[in-house]
Write a structure and sequence with these properties.
This protein is mainly β and 216 residues long. Helices cover 0% and strands 50% of the residues. The structure holds copper (II) ion (CU). Copper (II) ion binds at residues 1, 23, 27-28, 51-52.
């Protein structure tokens, strides 16, 4: 999102948080049904659209590497769209409702390499298909994981072994620090809140209005 510069220091004793000015909902993560009304019992294809990547505490931006969507049972069991450059897995929750149905099915798309991360200046869509089960507002808790790379180059070393010079070549290793955006607040107007450590943000979860099945 575009953050306003006005950061008012609102430190909570419990978690230590900074509240950043409210931002437009469509820049976060939204759900696009391409004009189809989500209806109980109907077949629905919808796109989870992410609007931007993560912003580190120093202001640098990083693209999304992992996109995680907890699809609520009300939206039906999801079949995920294959997205080029990404693997995808669906994990039903261990927690089940009274009728034995997992309360969520978590869909995780993971970039196959850093080159497949969503560019910081681009939006992206990750599709789902399902048959909604229950009418009302369904909230989709969604997480974006971005990675800050750190490259360390160990210099070449020369040792003498039995009077002979043995050279060990230098080695470059890349490690990553994760930045998270948790779209998990069940209030579309919720502000974006950055954690005190600057490594995670919390904002409004995307939602879907599911209509009751049409009377026959
Ligand atoms: Cu945003």
């Amino acid at each position: 999102m575009k953050k306003s510069i006005s950061i008012f220091a609102a430190f909570s004793f419990a978690v230590g948080i900074v509240v950043v000015g409210g931002t437009s909902a469509n820049a976060h993560v939204g759900i696009d049904t391409r004009g189809t009304v989500a209806t109980v019992g109907g077949s629905l294809t919808y796109e989870m659209r992410l609007g931007h990547g993560c912003t580190a505490a120093d202001g640098n931006k990083y693209g999304t590497h992992v996109f995680v969507v907890a699809v609520p049972a009300a939206a039906g069991v999801p079949t995920p769209q294959a997205v080029p450059g990404y693997t995808v897995v669906v994990t039903p929750s261990a927690i089940k409702d009274a009728s034995g149905v997992p309360v969520t099915n978590t869909v995780t798309w993971t970039a196959k390499s850093a080159n497949d991360d969503i560019q910081i200046n681009a939006f992206a869509e990750f599709g789902l298909r399902g048959k909604p089960l229950a009418a009302g507002v369904a909230w989709f808790d969604t997480t974006q994981i971005c990675r800050v790379p750190k490259t360390v180059t160990a210099p070449a070393t020369i040792k003498k072994v039995n009077g002979k010079k043995v050279t060990t070549p230098g080695k470059t290793t890349t490690t990553y620090t994760e930045l998270l955006i948790n779209w998990s607040v069940h209030d579309s107007a919720a502000p974006t809140v950055v954690a005190a450590d600057g490594l995670s943000e919390t904002g409004p979860a995307p939602s879907l209005n599911i209509a009751a099945a049409a009377a026959k």
